[in-house]
Amino acid sequence: MRDTEILDLYWAREERAISETQNSYGNYCYSIAWHILYSKEDSDECVNDTWLRAWNAIPPKRPGRFAVFLGTITRNLALDRWKERHTMKRGNGEMTVALDELAECIPDVRSTEEAVEAAELERMMNEFLRTLPERECNVFLRRYWYVEEYSEIAERYGMKLNTVKTSLFRTRAKLRSYLESEGVIL
What we know:
Blueprint: H1 3-11, H2 16-37, H3 40-57, H4 66-84, H5 94-103, H6 115-131, H7 134-144, H8 150-157, H9 161-181
């Protein structure tokens, strides 16, 4: 079923929208949650919570890119769950490592007064990502959006492990430089 048809089901408040969403995007959302949580039960719960959040958000929202909309909800739910249940063992420590790697080039947003700055940072991040070659952008997103391990990224793109690490190091350096040129204080 196409996204527009699924969205029409949400707008009509037909419960079938949830099962169609599960059929179309269940594996995608589960994968996002899994790479953050490394727990079947927690990942399943995040996916189910994603369907509930989508149900509650549509209408009034009508997302233009349904997959991105669902992926963002799943990711945010998984990050919240990860924070609640955080231990160094959970997720093989990858979440901590990934967040630490980005911390050196992205300022921390802690208060609601900085919400406008956060939105501007998001705009700049998206603009920066559009400047990258496709593969470099995909590797960066796989690591920092989907929180995949280096070895998974290397396998996915047929790269050596050290090549992935070097690519990410260089991309973070480019990001830092780009943000500094845009006036972001790190």
